[in-house]
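Data availability excerpt. The first of two example chains:
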Amino acid sequence: MLINWLLSALSLVIVANVIPGFELSGFVAALIAALVIGFVNATLGFFLKIVTFPLTIVTLGIFWLVINALMLKVAAALVPGFRINGFLPAFLGSIVLTLVNVVLRTLVAA
């Protein structure tokens, strides 16, 4: 679990360096943001995914990307030192964050 937390924080740092408008003040902010993102996704994100399931089916799953972007914006509002300037950086950041997380976890598991 500790390794997953560190990988999530590292993923946030990578995304902050790749996506303009996605800002982190340092690795400590990334660690805190990783915790908050996990908590927000497990609570509010889970609820929203259940409530919007019909819309997700109609859009073939693409609406979940919007929900993930909104969860990143919520986390950015709660964590000092973590800021996302606009919806587009949040949307692109959620996609890149997922991809980077998958790659890092695959590398560590290998």
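And the second chain:
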Amino acid sequence: MEDVMQDRVDQLVGYIMKHCLWQFHSRTWDRERQNKEILQMTAQLLCNEEVQHDTLFDRCYWADAVYLADAYRSRYPWLAMMAKAEIKELMRNLHERMDYLTIKGSLNAELTDKNY
């Protein structure tokens, strides 16, 4: 079961890496915030839950989340067979992986430059 989860996370990561420009923000705090907000909203959309998008920042993240959720639904039919709890776990794992790839494991020195 763990192999299936990892394979699915890898598929979702691959889509983001190939199609989503938001992963390239130049500061750590931007990447942390975008990963959290976009992936959380995407999870809510995939679970057919209401998503709050009252502020301008929320609307920006929501637009990316809508795009991502639509792309995931159309490309990964196995999502439709997953329970809400499984989707939330999948998205938590995806969030952790994206944080590693775009922040913690990144070699981009701009992310940690205090003068940038």
